[in-house]
Task: structure prediction
Amino acid sequence: MSKEVLSKEKRTLLFGNEAVVRACLESGVGFSASYPGTPASEIGTVLAEISKETGLYFEWSTNEKVALEAAAGAAFSGVKSITAMKHYGLNVVSDSLLPLTYLECPLVVVVADDPGCFSSIETEQDTRWYSKMGYIPMLEPSSPEETMDVTKKAFEIAWKYKIPVIIRLTTRVCYTRSIINLSKIPKINSIGRFEKPINYEGSCSHTVLGHEKLLNKIELLKKLSEKSELNFTESGTGNIGIITSGVSYRYVKEVFDDLKIKLPLLKIGMSYPLPDEKIKNFCKKLKKVLVIEEVDPIIENEVKCLTNNLEVHGKDFLSSVGEYNTEIVLHGISKILNKKFPKDIENIGKQYNNTEIEPRIPFLCAGCPHRATFYAIRKIIPDAPKLGDIGCYLLGSWKPEKIEDIIVSMGAGISLAHGVSKSTNKKTVAFIGDSTFFHAGVPALLNLVYNKSDILLVILDNRWTAMTGHQPTLTTGRNATEEAKIIDIAEIVKACQVDNYASANVYNMNELLETVKDLYSKKGVSVLIAKGECKLAYLRRLAKEKKNYFRFEVYQQNPDLKELDNFKCPAIFKENGKYSIDANLCWGCTVCKQLAPSSIKIKTQ
Result:
């Protein structure tokens, strides 16, 4: 990815996430900090790859709030700074982001929303509410080309008006590729000088004055929004118009081509503050307007407030849930026009109606350390309530594992399990990954100890933030750009003064089963550190080193093979009552050999 981002050609092909990085370089960004979260993860991944070559400082921080605060510190020191996150990350940073607007921090914050929840399970939230609540300017590109321009514009606004600016991406923009026009990358300045803000004091009166100043600034930004090239109209025929934002603009243009029409169109690229006068002028000669936006009716509601005697449609014609596409937008536009589809467009969908598509259910990889841990917990503690957390181990809530009862947010599983335990007088189990433990689990663990909980906390230490692309964690032994200290989870757990704790190698089933049994039998806060490196990362490393690994095969059909039904490895399958191991899927974790020692052996290479 870094090769295309650093291209010296006049044009190159980039994803939306890569366009953000290139725009950062062309804007002279010197500092960036993030916590990985798909669909924004690649922004940080590419910045990490190019940081040393360009002189830009980048770090993977322990969570989004820490990343935002670090980037804000750099911005206060005169260094252009950016932080990127997915939509849930904005919830984590809000405690600091809103005050930064009062403190005139010139920071750019990229937030990737996920309509349709392709890489998200908690909520389908719309980031635009934060801009209105926090008085934070928001820009919305509809393509990688626009993302490049919008990111540059965000830095211009942030530094001219001394205010944080949010760039709202969506999954489709992040992962669409387009040809991007490139400019020269200036020399990166990553060293600044901190100067205390004039007349700053931590007082109520100072905050109130800051609020007043912020509101005045928003009035100036409203004037900017009215003139901004990000908000533009396109002429068309008839008295029915379209107002749209983000990637929906692209769908509208495709529908115009499909239906061979051209309606008056207003594209909103700066969605806060909105260009009120531009909206009013656009609507003056119209009888009807259809507002097309993902996810919530934010612009639609504003248009209704700004216009009188105008028929405004939006979520009554289009869904408030999920990602839009050209067909969905086609339905909405056809409805407001009271026009049927052309026959050829209608038949495109019909030809696939009877096609049977094999469902693909997400599952843990063969050899995944989490599968061994889940197996041991199911075996020893079948009936206890089990609360999960965010990471690839959330797949434990899916078939065939079905072991996690509830998943809410980063770090929430521990506190949920605490509440269940206190209200049922039953020892509960909570799962949390190593990256998530450092992100949000330590305060929750301290709360367990302080309030005398009775719980087994299982920390799944696979040494990587695997779900978002194998970014390093504090247990990996490196940070974003170089080797680093390995933070020993056991020492952190010990410092929290838990009642009982132990580590276990998840690929040693006897050790793991005995450790689970021992810890769960003890009263109080017990912590199991389940250690086993992500097999995918491990095998990639072996491939780079050109080293081989052992695979296993079934050589006798013995009764002990039935235990593999409970283990549920995707490399093991049963056909006509006989068990087999797919050598292409087997990653040599050895667990099956331990569960069925009389039936399985190492496969001859």
Remarks:
- The two ends are 35 Å apart (CA to CA).
- The domain at 2-194+201-227 is CATH 3.40.50.970 (Rossmann fold).
